[in-house]
Amino acid sequence: MERRNFIKTSCKICLLGAFGATAETLSGCGAAYPVFKTAVLDKKISVPLSLFATNSTQFIRPKGWYYDIAVQKVELGLTALLLMCTHQDNQLVINGNKGYSCSLHGSTFNTEGKVLKGPAERALKRYNTAVEGDQLIIFV
Question: Within this chain, do residues 70 and 8 fall inside the same structural domain, yes or no?
């Protein structure tokens, strides 16, 4: 084998090995909770109400969006919150049953989207919802 081909082959093997070692950790970059993926049509997201049969909180990921929407059953109906930190637009993570937190600067929000701890100063964006038949409609 020529030296040039040997170096090319060796580099490919090293790169494949490095990718294999990190591929498992990359799967941790996604959401650590079940997410219902769907499309946005005419500025509306349609979600089957049957999703809420087993859990009062569901996470929706509209196609092409970076941020999830947390939808939860409350006494007065259903609320939908965009899980984007209002401080610097970072994706929020679930903070147990207490709400959501930002891994970037530590802001925390309760399940109603109100700021519990800054540096964020504004509540989470809330979307209007409606029930049409067996579907929840989120107006975005």
Answer: no
CA distance 135 to 82: 19
Distances, alpha carbon 76 to alpha carbons 79, 97, 110, in Å: 9, 19, 17
Weakest-pLDDT range from 27-36, 48-57, 71-80:
27-36
Residue 108, Ramachandran bin (φ over 0: left; ψ between -120 and 50: alpha; else beta): beta
pLDDT for 32 beyond 70: no
Q: How many domains does the chain have?
A: 2
Domain that holds residue 19: 1-30
pTM exceeds 0.90 for this model: no
State the virtual CA torsion across 25, 31, 37, 41 in degrees, nearest 10. Answer: -120
133 and 64, same structural domain? yes
Q: Tell me the average pLDDT across 2-9.
A: 70
Same domain for 94 and 49, yes or no, is: yes
Rounded distance between C-alpha atoms, residue 27 and residue 29, angstroms: 5
Q: In the predicted model, is pLDDT for residue 108 greater than 80?
A: yes
Amino acid at 50: S
